[in-house]
Amino acid sequence: MKAVRFSQFGGPEVLEIVDLPDPHPGPGQVRIAVRASGVNPGDWKKRKGLMDGELPQTMGHEAAGVVDELGEGVADVAAGDRVFGLSAEGAAQAELAVLSYYAPIPPSLDFPAAAALPAAIETATRALDQLSVGSGSTLLINGASGSVGSAAVQLAVMRGARVIGTARPASHEYLRSLGAEPVAYGEGLTGRVRALAPGGVDVALDVAGSGVLPELIELAGGTGHVITVADFGGAQEHGVRFSSGDAAGRAVHALGEIGELIESGRFSLPVAQTFPLAEIAEAHRVSEQGHARGKLVLLVG
Q1: Can you tell me whether residue 166 is helix, strand or coil?
Q2: 171-194 burial string, b = 16+ CB within 10 Å, else e?
Q3: pLDDT tens, position by position, for the chain (301 residues)?
Q4: φ and ψ of 121, to 5 deg
């Protein structure tokens, strides 16, 4: 099968499309013929060597497609079913992928829209769970207009929370449409947030990794009220929890719950741009610029 891989760290040019052996599912897993696969900021951070030192590396943690092989004990889907989900192997940017966690694709979604969901909704749900966001909470999200941020906004609002979200001014109307109160990021952020919430916020979630953890800690009243999913170095420096999808407590229940919210019109996650698999390097360039409103998706099958 064709798959994305890199054998050295560097810029987008190190990415290759290579032939790899077809994978096969283990117990409880399914294999899909991939139709679309999500692109995430963690992809280019891995490519640059910022997250782990393993070489060579395949890429991709989420995909949507058609089930073509079942692992032992799988009885909830059948060959030919449309599913989306997460690849524990990190090899979903390929023609075939093994999914460890999966759910039926909501009927109203095509494959690219379904491939946009798994990492964003799992990450957002995990962070909200870990911050105990609920009715009456005031949550500050740094980087609220991207895929994880906008998912977190919508899910937090559904929990009854008040959400303040940072974004560039061009995205403020979009955040309002999701139910958040927007503020511009950059110098003076603390003052702008306090203008909306004079007493600060209950909890803060950093999705952007833009070096604002000290401000978030001040606004939320301590390191224990802040989580980052994007700034590993900052988390270590400032004593903030870094929430990783590799850790225990992965919120895979979100995959099975999102379909009802989508079909009832209460949740949406836009696809910002799609790319053929062969243009993976360009997808990385766009991802690294950090301005996409919504998800970047590779079209595979």
Answers
A1: strand
A2: bbebbeebebbbbebeeebeebbe
A3: 999 999 999 999 999 999 999 999 999 999 999 999 999 988 998 999 987 788 999 999 999 999 999 999 999 999 999 999 999 889 999 999 999 999 999 999 999 999 999 999 999 999 999 999 999 999 999 999 989 999 999 999 999 999 999 999 999 999 999 999 999 999 999 999 999 999 999 999 999 988 999 999 999 999 999 999 999 899 999 999 999 876 567 899 999 999 999 999 999 999 999 999 999 999 999 998 877 778 999 999 7
A4: -75, -35
C-alpha dist (Å) from residue 80 to 69, 91, 96, 98, 259: 9, 21, 14, 15, 19
Domains of the chain by range and CATH? Answer: 2-116+270-299 (3.90.180.10), 121-242 (3.40.50.720)
DSSP 23: P
Determine the Cα–Cα distance for residues 248 and 265; give it in Å rounded to an integer.
31
Helix (H, G, I), strand (E, B) or coil at 221: coil
Give me the residues paired with residue 232 across strands. none
User: In 9-100, which ranges are E strands?
Assistant: 15-19, 30-39, 57-58, 62-70, 82-86, 96-99
Cβ 43 vs Cβ 53: under 8 Å: no
> Cα-atom radius of gyration of the chain, to the nearest Å?
19
Residues contacting residue 74 through CB under 8 Å, at least 6 positions apart = 25, 28, 29, 30
